[in-house]
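Annotated sample (chain length 369).
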Amino acid sequence: MVSVLVLAGCAKDSGGGSDSGDSGDQAGGQSCVTAEAPPAASPAASSSSAAGEKVDASALKVGLAYDVGGRGDASFNDAAAAGVDKAKADMGVTDSTESTAAGTESEDAKQQRLNQMATEGFNPVIAVGFAYAEAVKAVAPKFPDTKFAIIDDDSVQAPNVTPLVFAEEQGSYLAGVAAVHKSKNCHIGFVGGVDTPLIQKFEAGFLAGAKAASDKVKIEDDYLTPAGDITGFNDPGKGNVVGKAQVDKGADVLYHAAGASGRGVFEAAKANNALAIGVDSDQYNQKTVEGVKDVIMTSMIKRVDVAVYDYIQAVAKNDLTSLPKRFDLKVDGVGYSTSGGMVDDIKAVLDGYKQQIVDGKITVSDKPE
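Output written by the structure step:
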């Protein structure tokens, strides 16, 4: 009995055998949150799309050059496709074409894809993703009367090229806050597809938002492939392996910025009783991940659909000056989804942080610390 009492006393002195506040029992639920909630938000900003404006785009032939994964990736490419589909419904676009990049294709293949669209009279031609930067730079000068747009890159300086870029770090900041509020273990994870400056913006915002909400949260942080290997955007199997590894370490909310590989992250979360945060599209409502939607608590929405739609509208009006320089929280270019109702209870908190970013009271770095 004396031995038992001595051991019990030692356990009490050492904090019950736990070396941190990251356990589910000690840090569960809202106890992970250490920051005060921000002030209530003012009325939300309206979308950048011109609501109710009647524009006739029936004369346009739209070319859409997808990144790897193409239509059906439940993420980035599907969002671009949704923008064109809405332009067809609202503005009368009747002629369009689509083509998808392969995971290992050469620069010549990308140039050939854009060349073919422009040669066949498609105008505008929209390149979906920064991987097309060199191809757009090479092809656009050959077709001065064709308008090109490129998503996620602003390096191409040409009079007929329009960059469509986003504040991914701002939307990801809200994802980080949401992850902390929903984590029972005070332990969350980020899974990036390819380690590039673009995906680092998602990572940077997520880390910053999580740390703003909690000074004790533990964060797993992994990429599927290094820069130069774009297969990380289209490898659900690898996403599953990395997601499961993070859950095994204790993470119970996983945020991915990994394109079609995100399906594997969702599957890992579902199989291991964790939650997940989607990206780009409202992934709770995406058919290709319908079987795992019950773990998708929210998605960081990157409104590629809005950017593509607005760009087509601007081309039809022959007024590209109407487009924002960057699609950020202020113009609803990024944001978060509420499908499934799993973040309804923290919506006021998320909107409060959003308002502080919009008002300039919080500046979100696009580089991870």
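Annotation: Confidence is low (pLDDT under 50) at residues 1-29, 45-51.
Annotation: The longest helix spans residues 197-213.
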